[in-house]
Amino acid sequence: MASHSVTLRHHFETSEQQKDASTIGMWMFLVTEIMFFGGLFMAYIAYRGAYPDAFAAGSQKLNIVYGTINTAVLICSSLTMAMAVHSAALGKKNLIILFLILTLMLGGVFLGIKAVEYHDKYVGHEIPGANFHPELDNKNVSVNNVSLYFALYFGMTGLHALHMIVGVGLLLFLIFKTAKGAYTAHWHTPIELFGLYWHFVDIVWIFLFPLLYLIDLHPGK
Amino acid sequence: METAAIVKREPRTYLNVDHTLKGWLLTEDHKRIGILYLIVITIFFAIGGLFAALIRIELATPAGDLVESGVYNRLFTGHGIIMVFFFLIPSIPASIGNFLIPLMIGAKDVAFPKLNLLSWYLYVIGGSMALTAIIYGGIDTGWTFYVPFSTGYASGMVMLTLVGIFINGFSSILTGLNFMVTIHRMRAPGMTWFRLPLFIWSLYSTSLIQVLATPVVAVTLLLAALERGLHIGIFDPTLGGDPVLFQHLFWFYSHPAVYIMILPAMGVTSEIISTFSKKEPFGYSFIALSSLAIAVFGFIVWGHHLFVSSQSVYAGMVFSVLSYLVAIPSAIKVFNWVSTMHKGSVQLTTPMLYGIGFIGLFTIGGLTGLFLASMGMDVHLTDTYFVVAHFHYIMVGGAIMGFMGGLHFWWPKITGKLYAENWAKLSAVIIFLGFNLTFFPQFILGYMGMPRRYHVYAPEFQVYNVLSSAGASILGLGYAIPLTYFLWSLFFGKQAPANPWGATGLEWQIQSPPIPENFEITPVITEASYKYSHEEAAHVG
Fold first, then answer.
1. CATH code at position B428
2. Prediction ipTM score
3. Given A29, B203, B244, B376, which is the most exposed site by the fewest CB atoms within 10 A?
4. B240 contact residues in A (CB cutoff 8 A)
5. Phi, then psi, of B301 in degrees rounded to 5
6. The CATH number of the domain where A82 resides is what?
């Protein structure tokens, strides 16, 4: 307790208690995030169940190559993030910075590819609203229902991207703090907790990718 | 040491340690943040009450002579939005709860003090946005924001209100998260789960709902805002969406939200009944766990709001049966409170009057809820004044009685001052009578078929409406008196002793008002919160 009293806030008895409280708080925050995304997933389930053909038609307008690359990029970033947490536990400052920068770069690649995808959708008139005129292979589906698919696509991936942007901001902050020597083998709770957040955002994408990109792709169709 | 501090004329307290405005607006002390909440909550209560007064004046006669229908729609919408989102939901947890949780569990503060302050600012920002929309003409969607009306046709600053409620939602989520972590990780040595005061159990259950349900309504209102702002089809049927999905998502939060309002009031009542019966609560663990049961059941009953909204009859039957289940933990509580008073030394102090009033009014509110949970009855009663009367018995008769009871009970601890007991008793009785006169006639009106949300009505309903409006004016007087004597007590009230009620809770063992750090040294707990011996009960009786 006395050994790292610099980081111990006044209302905690021990640094174990402080770390415990922060960790359980982060897990609880992630539960609220699940419920937050949960509303969108619920809407997805309801509408995909009601309009499966329109969702398939909409899904075919997505670029599966971009989606697959982005999935791989995010999985790699989870690995580098895990390595950063591991390095923090060992107290190796330079390794922490290296892995956090790698994570930051992979996050940037993801967001870049996402931006290209969004731009393609804009060019193809596939953004719901007044200018929504997608060129669909299946002419038998209602354009309104395809618009629902794209509203959910933009809602879900947009909210995910927003979490990525927040994550990138936090990464910059952590890199800065690490460089100043804020974290030691004894105390590196912020890095650990950010790791939980980053993995959570990755997991959301792991669900979004098949739900949005891989509808109706099985052979024989 | 402690005695010396009390003898001194001005002992150091959380109130006098810093008198600057900055010391209040940037405070991280949970006690000061609780008071910040109390002030803003009271303002919102007054504004919401003003809308209610205008509604009741309009309804005193069958014709629409005070306002026309469009204005009336804005009045009940403003009343609903302010009372639900900006008064009832934060009322007990954020003010009294914030003040008491660390004191009751033997901690110096909540787990995340900065987050606690941030929650208050989010609440004020969200509230200001909704208030701005109301001042600039108001909105007419009803507090439920049903689509497609709210997203396509309603006039006024619906967008701003939705964003305000969205931001306020995060205040609620973060407060719940903070409280849960605090109760999990900040308890003093020896403060085991089953030694916790029942108020803590009820706030834990409340926080669970805030954390799990609020994000869902947040994202739902966000989608509604997107639909309104960008005309992207999500719920609007003309754009391919399904309006019933909105109702499902909305009530997935808004039904549990009723338990966010009532559970803390139940916790307050448990404390009051035990203290003023000078008895351990009868069946402590049943009261504690029934709070959790209400929180859990609350998540699986939302469909009873959709009995007439094209939900399948079979789904309706399931939701109907599940809704009945809520009656079980609720009845356990009522039974245990009454049993606590049985053979206790009952003192009819002001908080106790509110406590007993709560039991009676909550029972009526709860039992009429069973009428509405049965599908056949609900088809007849839905959207009538029966529903209005039912939820006001829960929200005003239950939640506000609990809030008033708690405020009177802990006022000496919070401010260090005693209020005028006789005036307080008088106003408690006035509130009880005024409340019943306001809302009981509405059960009859609803049964006779008077629909809610209209500013004109058939002449045969007038006698009950006049009774209701007369009751509302008595109720208004009942709320004005406490405001007066509470303010009076701040300046002229007698100094409160540490434990004016002879209560056993941890918060009563420290000075009134407490020192900024709550406890000089962290207490070690060796027994349950309620240790009223039989001998003591005999003496007081």
1. 1.20.210.10
2. 0.92
3. B376
4. 51, 142, 144-145, 147-148
5. -125, 5
6. 1.20.120.80
